[in-house]
C-alpha cells in the first residue's frame, strides 16, 4: 500500500461527500484504493466483488488496459484544447463512432461532462428546437414521478424523487409529471417486462388535455428507472408513450444514463425496446466511468433545424469548457474499442437468462418482497423495518461490504448492475453472498 493510500479518520473532515451519510462514514470509513476487472481492493487489503459497476458506469470492468493506455498517451500529447470555435480530432472521431452505434437517425452528438449536464442539455435542445422551428409556444417539460435525471435544476424539476426536490425552492416552472409505473401489487416477482401498467402512458393524454399540446415541448423518461429502485416499464408502455408524443408533436427524450452502453444486452435501451426517441441522454458507460463525460444524441431533423441563418453565427448558445475534451474523448475511444473487441454491448443478452434465474432464486430469501430484472440489471426489494424505512437495506449494504461484495441500495431496494464482463460463477457468488447477508439480517 502506498503512503498516499494511508488515510486516517482525522483527515476526512474537509471533503463534504456527495449523497453520503458523512458523519457515519467518517466514523467508519469504507475506502477503495485500487481495482482490477470485477474487483476493488480496500484500504485494508480486502477484495470486494463489484456487483454495481461502480455507480452503474464501469461497464467493461476496472482498469482496462486499452482505456488506461488511451488516457496515458493523450495526457502527454494534447492535454486540453479550447472547446468553443476550435476542435481536436478525437472529439470528432468519438462522435462518429458513437453515431455508428446509436439507433438509426440519431447521428449528432453534443458532449457534456456528466449525466446531469446531459439532461440539462437535452431539455435546452428540446426548448430551443421548438423555438427555431416556429413553435416557441411549446415551453412545458413533462417528467415522471420517481424519475432521476441528475441533480441540476432542470433535472430535479422533471425528476420525481421527493427528497432530491423538496429543499430547493420552486424549481423550473411549466413542468408536469406522468405517474410512475411501479405496481407491486400486480407485478411483483415479474421476470423481465411486467404485464400490467401500459395504460399509465395514457396519462399523457390527460396532461395534453389540461395544458394543450401546443404548450408542451418534451417528455423525458428513463426507459428503465434506475436510481429509484429499478422500475421496469410495463409491456407496451414505452410504445404508447412514443405514439402519443408523435401524435402531439412532443419530443420524446430517453434518459439512458444507466441503460446505455450495453447494460440491457443491446447498445441502448432504445434498441432493446425497438423505440427510437428524438433525443437520447447518456454518460457513465460512455467512458467506462474513467473520465467524466456525457453525450446527448439528437435526431437529424432536430440538429438540422438549428443549422440555418448566417453561417458566422453560433447556432446553439450552450456548451461547457470541457465539452469533448481530449482526455475524455480518448477515454471514450478506448472504451468503445474495449466494448467492440469483447462484444460487451451485446454480451448482456447472452447472460440475461442466467442472471434472471440466479436473481429469482432469492425469492424465498429472508425479507424479500419483490425481485425485478431486465438485461444485466436487477433489484431485490426488502420489507422495510417498521418506522425505519431504508435502514434494513442500508444495513445489508454495510454487511455486504464487510463480506466483500459491493451492492447499491436505494430505499429498501438492493440494486445490482455488475460490469458486463461478469462470469456465471461470479453471478452465483453475488447471489449466494446476498442470501447469506439476508439470512443474518434483522
Ligand atoms: N440520469 C440518470 C437516469 C441517472 O441514473 C443521472 C442522470 C445523473 O448523472 P450524473 O453523472 O450527473 O451523476 C443519473 C445518475 C444509483 C446512482 O446508485 C445513480 C446515479 C448516480 C449515482 C448513483 O442509483 N445516476
Overview of this protein structure:
The longest helix is centred in the N-terminal third of the chain and has 18 residues. The protein is globular and about 65 Å long. The protein folds into two domains: 155 residues, Alpha-Beta Complex (Aspartate Aminotransferase, domain 1); 274 residues, Aspartate Aminotransferase, domain 2. With 442 residues, the chain is an alpha/beta fold. The strands form three sheets. It has a seven-stranded mixed sheet with strand order 4-10-9-8-7-5-6, sandwiched between helices. Strands 1-2-3-13 form a four-stranded mixed sheet. 3-[O-phosphonopyridoxyl]--amino-benzoic acid (PXG) binds next to helix 2, helix 5 and strand 14.
Short description:
This protein has helices at residues 22-27, 53-56, 65-77, 89-101, 115-132, 153-158, 162-165, 184-187, 203-211, 237-248, 269-273, 300-306, 326-341, 344-360, 391-403, 424-440; strands at residues 32-36, 39-42, 47-50, 108-112, 140-144, 175-178, 216-221, 251-255, 279-282, 294-298, 368-374, 377-382, 405-406, 408-410, 413-416. The chain is built from 16 helices and 15 strands. The structure holds 3-[O-phosphonopyridoxyl]--amino-benzoic acid.
Can you give keywords for this protein?
16% strand, Aspartate Aminotransferase, domain 1, 7-stranded mixed β-sheet, alpha/beta, 442 residues, 2 domains, Aspartate Aminotransferase, domain 2, 4-stranded mixed β-sheet, 15 strands
